[in-house]
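Hi support team,

I've been running sequence recovery on a batch of backbones for a student project. Most finish fine, but this one hangs at about 90% for roughly twenty minutes before it completes. I'm not sure whether the input is malformed or the queue is just slow. I've pasted the C-alpha cells below so you can try to reproduce it. Let me know if you need the job ID as well.

Thanks,
M.K.
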C-alpha cells in the first residue's frame, strides 16, 4: 500500500489530475491481476513443463479473460476509447497465454470447451476476483430440470410439427410393464462401489479385452444389396435376444452406425433419438435411409423448423440440444443412441447434463429402453471419463450402481476387501453391454481397403452462399443453352432436352473457364466448398485421432491445410505437415516425426506434394478433406497407407458437402474408377481423360437445372 502511495505522490508532481486518474485506473480492476498471474505462468513455462498449480493459474486466467472481454464489449457506460483500451490490454494478456502454450502445448487442452474446471480452479478464480475488488458470482449448482428458468431454457423451442405429433397422441402413457428387480439381501449396501468399479478396469484387466461374450448370429438379412458383416450381426442379434444397453466401442470403420440402427429395429425401439456431433448428423440420416428404409428419419437443424415431427428416428447434434431438450424429453422415445459418447465425459458440461437428463426421462417412462453409447476410445484409458457414459446407460447413478449391476455384484458374493472382487466386478460391468472390437480382430469381415463417404451439412452463411453461387452457375449455363437453341439454324429438332447441345454448352463453359477468371466456375466452386468443409473435416480427423491414434489428413489447397492445422493446435493435438516448397530435409523430418513419434497423431498432407513416394502405413485411417479430379490421384493418396506390410484394413473417409456439386463430382470420380478398372481388365471401352470429370460435372449441373425448369 505504501508503494502505491509513493507512486501517486510522484504523479502529483509531474502530471495533471486527469492523467493521474487514468494511471490509477490502469492499476485497478481484474486486468492487472491477470497480467501478474499470467507472467508467473509464463516464467514457469520458460523454465520447463508447467506445474499442476501453474496449469490451474493458466486455465483461470483464460476463463477470466473471456469473461472480462464479454463484459467490456457489453458495457455501454464506457466510452468507445475506454473500451478499446481495455480490450487492447486484454489482448496483451491473451498474447502471453498464446506464447506460453507455444512453449508447453499440453496447456491447449485447458482451453477446450469441455475442459474440466476443477474445484481448485474455481477457488482461485474467486480469489482473483476478490483481489480485483469484484464480487464473485455465487457457487453454481447444476440445474437440469426442464422447469428451470435459465438462459438455456429461455432459448428452447418446440417445432410446429412436434406440436402436431403431440396433439395426435395426447394420451402417451409411461410403460410400467417391467417389474423392478427384488433387492433381496444386500451385503454391498454400505460399500462405496463406484470407485472400485472404475479401478477394476486398471487393476484386473490382465491384458484381457473389455468385451462381452456375443453368440454367433442366425440368419440376419440386410436391406437391398447391403451386406451385414458377421461382427455387426452379433450385436444386432444380441438386441433381438433382449439385451438393451450397449457401450459399443468398436474402432471407427467397423460399422457402428449400421449396428445401432439395426439394433434399434431388432428391439423395435421407436421412436429413436440419436445425439451426434455436428459433423456426422447428415451421415446418420443417410445411413438410416440405407439400413432401415422403412423408418423415416429427420435431422434437427437450428430451431427445427424443417423437421418431420412424426419421424421414427430423430437426429440432433450436441450443439443445438439445449434448444430441444424440453420437447425431446416428452416425445416418448423408446431408444436413444449417443454417438462419440466421450463428448459427455465432463458431467458438469451442459451437453452432458442434457444427455443424462434425456436418458433419465426415457428410462423413467419406458420399460427396458434401448440405450447405446458409441465411442471408438479404448476403454482402458482415462476410465474416469466413463462415469457419465455408464450413468447414461443406467448402469450407475451419482453414488451407486443401478439395480441390475448391483444385483450382479451381489451375486459374486465378494466385497471390495476381497482381492478377487475387482476381476469379478470388471466382468459384471462388461456383461452389462461393453463391446470392443478392433480392425485386426475382424479383418476377415471387412475389405482391405475401402472409401467411406461422410456427407456434412454446410448450413451456415458460407453454405448458403455456396448454394447460391451454384444456382447462379446453373442459371448461366441454362441461359447459354437457350441462346444456342434459339440461334441454331441447322440440325434436327430434339424433343425435350438436347443432350448433345448440353454437352457442347458445358464444353464451351469449361473452355472459357481456362481462359477467364471472371465469374463463378466449377474450379472456384470446388475451392470454396473445400474451404467451407475444412473445419468439419479437421474436426472429424481430430475425433479419429482421439479414437484410433494416427491419422493421415489430405487436402488440395494450402488454406484448407492451414485451417486443419489451426484446429489441431487449438485441440492440443500434435501434428506434422508435408507441403510443396519444403526442403528435402524438412520433409523427411516431418515424415519421421509422424512415423516414429507416438505423440504426433496426425500428418497434414498436400495431395500434390505427398500423394506419391512416401510410406505412411503406421496409420490405417485417411481423411480426404477435398476431392481430387481423378480417381488415380485419390488412390495414390490412400496408397500412402494401403501398402505391402499394412497389418490392418485401411479406411479412407471422404468428406462430402451435402446438397452441392461436391456429391456429383464424387459420383463421377467413382464412375471413372469403374471405367479404369474395366479397361485394365481388357475392356475395349475408350478411356476418358481426367478433364472429363469437370465436363461431366457441368453437364450434370445443366441437365438438372433444365429438368427442374421444364
Amino acid at each position: 500500500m505504501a508503494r502505491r502511495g509513493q507512486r501517486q505522490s510522484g504523479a502529483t508532481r509531474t502530471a495533471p489530475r486527469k492523467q493521474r486518474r487514468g494511471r490509477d485506473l490502469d492499476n485497478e480492476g481484474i486486468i492487472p491481476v491477470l497480467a501478474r498471474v499470467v507472467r508467473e505462468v509464463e516464467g514457469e513455462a520458460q523454465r520447463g513443463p508447467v506445474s499442476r498449480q501453474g496449469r490451474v493459474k493458466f486455465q483461470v486466467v483464460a476463463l477470466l479473460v473471456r469473461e472480462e472481454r464479454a463484459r467490456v464489449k457489453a458495457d455501454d457506460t464506457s466510452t468507445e476509447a475506454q473500451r478499446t483500451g481495455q480490450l487492447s490490454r486484454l489482448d496483451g494478456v491473451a498474447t502471453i497465454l498464446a506464447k506460453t502454450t507455444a512453449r508447453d502445448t499440453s496447456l491447449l487442452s485447458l482451453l477446450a470447451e469441455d475442459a474440466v474446471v476443477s474445484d481448485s480452479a474455481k477457488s482461485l478464480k474467486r480469489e482473483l476476483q476478490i483481489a480485483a475488488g469484484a464480487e464473485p458470482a455465487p457457487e453454481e449448482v447444476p440445474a437440469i430440470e426442464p422447469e428451470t428458468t435459465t438462459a438455456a431454457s429461455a432459448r428452447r423451442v418446440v417445432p410446429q410439427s412436434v406440436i402436431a405429433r403431440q396433439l395426435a397422441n395426447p394420451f402417451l402413457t409411461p410403460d410400467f410393464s417391467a417389474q423392478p428387480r427384488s433387492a433381496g439381501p444386500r451385503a454391498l449396501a454400505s460399500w462405496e462401489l463406484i470407485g472400485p468399479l472404475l479401478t477394476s478396469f486398471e487393476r484386473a484387466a490382465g491384458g484381457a479385452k473389455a468385451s462381452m461374450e456375443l453368440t454367433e448370429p442366425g440368419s440376419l438379412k440386410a436391406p437391398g444389396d447391403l451386406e451385414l458383416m458377421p461382427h455387426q450381426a452379433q450385436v444386432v442379434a444380441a438386441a433381438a435376444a433382449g439385451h438393451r444397453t450397449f457401450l459399443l466401442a468398436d474402432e471407427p470403420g467397423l460399422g457402428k452406425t449400421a449396428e445401432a440402427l439395426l439394433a434399434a429395429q431388432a428391439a423395435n425401439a421407436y421412436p429413436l433419438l440419436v445425439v451426434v456431433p455436428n459433423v456426422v448428423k447428415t451421415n446418420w440420416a443417410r445411413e438410416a435411409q440405407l439400413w432401415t428404409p422403412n423408418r423415416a428419419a429427420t435431422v434437427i437443424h437450428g430451431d427445427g423448423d424443417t423437421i418431420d415431427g412424426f419421424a421414427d428416428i430423430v437426429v440432433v447434434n450436441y450443439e443445438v440440444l439445449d434448444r430441444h431438450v424440453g420437447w425431446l424429453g416428452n416425445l416418448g422415445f423408446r431408444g436413444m443412441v449417443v454417438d462419440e459418447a466421450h463428448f459427455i465425459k465432463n458431467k458438469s458440461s451442459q451437453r452432458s447434463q442434457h444427455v443424462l437428463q434425456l436418458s433419465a426421462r426415457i428410462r423413467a417412462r419406458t420399460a427396458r429402453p434401448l440405450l447405446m453409447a458409441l465411442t471408438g476410445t479404448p476403454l482402458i484409458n482415462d476410465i474416469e471419463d466413463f462415469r457419465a457414459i455408464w450413468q447414461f446407460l443406467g448402469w450407475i447413478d451419482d453414488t451407486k450402481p443401478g439395480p441390475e449391476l448391483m444385483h450382479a455384484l451381489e451375486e459374486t458374493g465378494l466385497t471390495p476387501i476381497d482381492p478377487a472382487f475387482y476381476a469379478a466386478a470388471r466382468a459384471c460391468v462388461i456383461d452389462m453391454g461393453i463391446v470392443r472390437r478392433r480392425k485386426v480382430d475382424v479383418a476377415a469381415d471387412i475389405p482391405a481397403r475401402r472409401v467411406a463417404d461422410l456427407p456434412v451439412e454446410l448450413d451456415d452463411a458460407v453454405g448458403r452462399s455456396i448454394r447460391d453461387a451454384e444456382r447462379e452457375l446453373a442459371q448461366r449455363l441454362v441461359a447459354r443453352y437457350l441462346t444456342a437453341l434459339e440461334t441454331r439454324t441447322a440440325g434436327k429438332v430434339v424433343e425435350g432436352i438436347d443432350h448433345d447441345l448440353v454437352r457442347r454448352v458445358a464444353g464451351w463453359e469449361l473452355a472459357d473457364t481456362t481462359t477467364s477468371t471472371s465469374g463463378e466456375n466449377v474450379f472456384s466452386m470446388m475451392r470454396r466448398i473445400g474451404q467451407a468443409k475444412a473445419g468439419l473435416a479437421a474436426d472429424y480427423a481430430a475425433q479419429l485421432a482421439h479414437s484410433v491414434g494416427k491419422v493421415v489428413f489430405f487436402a488440395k489447397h494450402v488454406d484448407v491445410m492451414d485451417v486443419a492445422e489451426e484446429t489441431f493446435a487449438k485441440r492440443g493435438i500434435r501434428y506434422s505437415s508435408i507441403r510443396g516448397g519444403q526442403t528435402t530435409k524438412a520433409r523427411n523430418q516431418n515424415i519421421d516425426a509422424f512415423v516414429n513419434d507416438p505423440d504426433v497423431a496426425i500428418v497434414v498432407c498436400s495431395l500434390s506434394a505427398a500423394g506419391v513416394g512416401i510410406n505412411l502405413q503406421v496409420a490405417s485411417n485417411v481423411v480426404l478433406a477435398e476431392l481430387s479430379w481423378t480417381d488415380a490421384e485419390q488412390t495414390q493418396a490412400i496408397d500412402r497407407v494401403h501398402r505391402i506390410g499394412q497389418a490392418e484394413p485401411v479406411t479412407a473417409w471422404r468428406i462430402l458437402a451435402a446438397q452441392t456439386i461436391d456429391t456429383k463430382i464424387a459420383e463421377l470420380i467413382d464412375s471413372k474408377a469403374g471405367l479404369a478398372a474395366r479397361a485394365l481388365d481388357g475392356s475395349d471401352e475408350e478411356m476418358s481423360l481426367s478433364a472429363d470429370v469437370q465436363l461431366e460435372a457441368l453437364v450434370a449441373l445443366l441437365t438438372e437445372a433444365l429438368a427442374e425448369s421444364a
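--
Follow-up from support: It reproduced on our side and the slowdown came from queue contention, not your input. Residues 1-25, 140-150, 675-689 have pLDDT under 50 and may be disordered. No action needed from you.
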